[in-house]
Amino acid sequence: MKKDIFLLGSTGSIGMTTLKIINKDKKSFNIKLLTTNKNVKKIYNQALNFGVKKVIIFDKEQLKKNQYRFKKKNISAYSSIDEAFRNIKTKAYLTINAISGIDGLEPSLNIIKYTKNFAIANKESIICGWSFINKELKKNNTKFIPLDSEHFSIWTLLQSHKTNNLKKIYLTASGGPFLKKKLNEIKYIKPKFALKHPNWKMGKKITIDSATMMNKIFEVIEASKIFELDTNKFEILIHPKSYIHAIIDFHNGLTKFLAHYTSMEIPIANTLYTNEDSYSFNRNFDYKKLNGVNFYKPSIVNFPLLKILNHKFINTYFEIILVSINDLLVKKYLENKISYISVHKFMLKLLKKRYFTNYYMSKPKNISDIKNMVNITNKYVEEYIKLNEKSN
Questions:
Q1: Do the domains 3-147 and 316-392 sit in the same CATH topology, yes or no?
Q2: What local confidence, expressed as pLDDT, does residue 29 receive?
């Protein structure tokens, strides 16, 4: 029997990897929904290729301009999940949310009730809105699967263990493209060099986050929320080969780790398939990657953003402000409007501003509060950059 799949963010990197896997075995899956923000051309071709009869284009202007194209092919195009799922009562087997950034949060909250299993590779949504996501998951009895390679590894390793038996969880980081460089040597390095990740093929924003170690900071915060553990239970280790993704040290003397190639195809495929109908990856275990494996702690001098982990993460506005500041700083860096060192300096200075610290003990009550804080943060940071970049 075919598994019904909803794929949010089908035109992005994770979405396209998911479709690549499904394309090899179309007889096992029935894609019932694809979504994009505004990449109409790509989602149109995807819908035709996979026989999808329902798509969502969140950009209303793009939807209005192109709706006729879909209608000609008997494909229903909508602008929201609520509109697309009106009068739907049955649940899909699996929803994969591959939408990047905080934009992925609202679609998550809206679609959970329509799916038996919900998998997400969206750090920002979990960091900013996990309490809302978790509430929906419990309310609708929907199983949660984390898709990020590190969190999928932790989730897999913990399947037969209680969390009170674990002593420490280690998340591995490649160190990014500047691993062998001191921060002082690359203060004004151009984005084109920061985008040359040694191991992974990722989007531009997450590649910069890898260079600054912000990606790993987000992963620690994300993991603490998903697995309901304090951040002091986690530690970051540099692992340049990126073959081992998570290590768990247990109180009983056992230490377990999970290794796989640097491809999101593996956690995605193992989410799509169950033990009864497992997926066959066409590469064998590479024992040579474990020969001479070097692990070491990242330097706070070269990765000063690690200081952020000293904060307590208790689902307040702090997490939303943190994500929003980082999003805007990375965007400005990629546009060559601020320097590489400014990404670090501005982040640490902005987080201490009284304008933001006043919010750190308050919690958002709903998604509107989150959106409002994103707007407030963006406005302040834009002005701060204008006033400070030239003098930095």
A1: no
A2: 96
**Is the distance from CB of 177 to CB of 197 less than 8 angstroms?**
yes
Which residues, 6+ apart, have CB-to-CB distance to 70 below 8 Å? 44, 47, 55, 76, 77
> What is the value of pTM for the model shown?
0.93
pLDDT, residue 276, reads: 61
Whole-angstrom Cα distance, residue 208 to residue 29?
34
* Size of the chain in residues: 392
Pairing of strands 76-78, 54-57: parallel
Please state the separation of Cα 92 from the chain's center in Å: 22
List all residues 6 or more positions away from 120 whose beta carbon is below 8 Å from its beta carbon: 96, 97, 104, 108, 126, 133, 144, 145, 146, 147
In contact, 29 and 95? CB cutoff 8 Å: no
- Cα–Cα distance measured from residue 35 to residue 230, given in angstroms and rounded to the nearest whole number: 35
Q: Write out pLDDT tens, residues 254-302.
A: 999 999 988 899 999 999 997 666 777 777 888 888 887 789 999 999 9
What are the tokens at 140? Answer: 């609708």
Instruction: Please choose, from the candidates 302, 326, 307, the residue with its C-alpha nearest in 3D space to the C-alpha of residue 215.
Output: 326
Pick the CATH number of 316-392 from 1.10.260, 1.20.1070, 1.10.1740, 1.10.357: 1.10.1740
Query: Domain limits of the chain?
Result: 3-147, 148-297, 316-392
The mean pLDDT of the chain is 93
How many Cα atoms within 13 Å fall on the side-chain side of residue 239? 23
End-to-end CA, the chain:
60
| Alpha carbons 36 and 57: distance in angstroms, whole number | 5
User: Can you name the CATH fold of 3-147?
Assistant: Rossmann fold (3.40.50)
